[in-house]
Design a protein that fits this description.
With 217 residues, the chain is an alpha+beta fold. Helices cover 25% and strands 24% of the residues. Helix 2 crosses helix 3 and helix 3 packs across helix 4.
Amino acid sequence: MRTSVSLSDDDLAKLTGSDDTDTRSAAEAAASRLAAPARWPDLTPHVAALVADVLAEAHREGRLIYRTMMISFCRYCGAKSTWEKSKRRRRDYEAKISGVEFAHRFVTIQGHISVGGCRACFDAALPVLRTELARFPVELPQALRTDAPAYRRWARCRCKKCEWSGHEGQLGKLRTVMGDGYYQGKCPNCGAERHFMGPDPFEHLDGFDVVESQENP
């Protein structure tokens, strides 16, 4: 049986030796946030914590996104939306605050940020984020890039016909159905091809590779 509880970072960080993978990961993230103010003393503690969480996501997933959205609450600075009276409506409305999402997720919840914070926290964190993210390979959105080399994250895969394995960036390019571009879909070893609405000759493997991009960012 599992029980959900709400812990402060101080209490959560004490669980870094847990045998449970999810608990240990959350505890390590809490410890990183607690250490962040000493690592970036020019930032306020809550902005430094945001930087720590974004860097952890970048290392763990190999990529970051940049998506603006309206949120009700920022977990870092505590900023909240306000309820205001509407001149056009009969009832009050929630005036939300602008936020930025950095994490790519297949399932999203409107108004909920997985990794990120409000616009004010993002603006304060941006200079340090750009500097830190330029130190290791990670796929970045334009908003976070510097003059450092651009990288692309590729999922790993294996050809079902010849057992070749690598990352999807190594697959040969095929023309799209509309003929307006190309996509990665040809086995570099046996030539098996992935076509729209056809059987997929490739199976996905765990993990990913981040390689220097050969295309203009």
